[in-house]
Amino acid sequence: MAAALVEARKAGALGEVPIGAVVVYNGEIVGRGFNMRERLQDASQHAEFIAITEANRQLGSWRLPDAQLFVTLEPCIMCAGIIQQTRITDVYYGADDPKAGAVRSLYRLLEDQRLNHQVYVHAGVHAEVASSMLKRFFKDIRQAKKRAKQQRRLAVESLSKVDPQ
Amino acid sequence: MAAALVEARKAGALGEVPIGAVVVYNGEIVGRGFNMRERLQDASQHAEFIAITEANRQLGSWRLPDAQLFVTLEPCIMCAGIIQQTRITDVYYGADDPKAGAVRSLYRLLEDQRLNHQVYVHAGVHAEVASSMLKRFFKDIRQAKKRAKQQRRLAVESLSKVDPQ
């Protein structure tokens, strides 16, 4: 999970929501990813999605049985879908995502017995670190917006004080 | 849907499960895709996934509000996820997928009121054409396997008839 947190920091440094992921196979990292959705304007560019498709390329197969995924935030529906399809064995995730999490929060898509593969889910792994990184990111965004608003208000006030003559 | 069926035929011609999709925006096709999972050995290469990410590139945005998706088979979990995320307005799909369909068969992921976007779903559009294409594909595969099995059996029989001297 330390490696996934490193990836998350890379996303944060680029102004993306700080989420990171790695895929491990036979004790080695075969895929890394960090959230790049805004920068690439591509809806598929979630951290774990990038890590999984990189692992597909590295191993030359769309199937990843016996692989583990480490991701700092609970996967969404799309990412749960690719995890289930690739037959990844274990998912270790950090913070819960109450609004969009599809592994424990809104759904339990990785443990559905009707599907042809089930995944072992390990929730809350280094959750506090992952969560505080996300909270700080959103707090910074709110503060930046507040500062921009204040600056606009001050500019309008100073314009209204100008003597029209 | 005719354009999506054309895409599906391209997949079938390459020995992939014949599924095709197009994304339409302002009356124009902005993304096309056909299933390429086996050829590319990449789990993300479903028809509608390719069409959606192509539309992201064409329009320079990961959001696709007011776009329509036409796909010959009911989307899986992963594809329902990217559809929901991109804010596509309408999904028209052909055949149901009772084993993995996440739009009507196993789940109704596109109409969940807890998520931040809901999609209008139009099921069964040219379902018979899409379905018969899929059935024919799987029938051909079964027959090819049967022929290969028969040939192996005949080869073993002819070997056993050879006089050991």
UniProtKB/TrEMBL annotation, chains A, B:
Pfam families: dCMP_cyt_deam_1
Co-factor binding comment: Binds 1 zinc ion per subunit.
Record InterPro entries: APOBEC/CMP_deaminase_Zn-bd, CMP_dCMP_dom, Cytidine_deaminase-like, tRNA_aden_deaminase
Alphabetic keyword roster: Hydrolase, Metal-binding, tRNA processing, Zinc
Active-site feature positions: 48 (proton donor)
Keyword Hydrolase: yes
EC number(s) given by UniProt: 3.5.4.33
GO biological process terms held by the UniProt record: tRNA wobble adenosine to inosine editing
Name of protein: tRNA-specific adenosine deaminase
Organism: Weissella muntiaci
Biological classification of the source: Bacteria, Bacillati, Bacillota, Bacilli, Lactobacillales
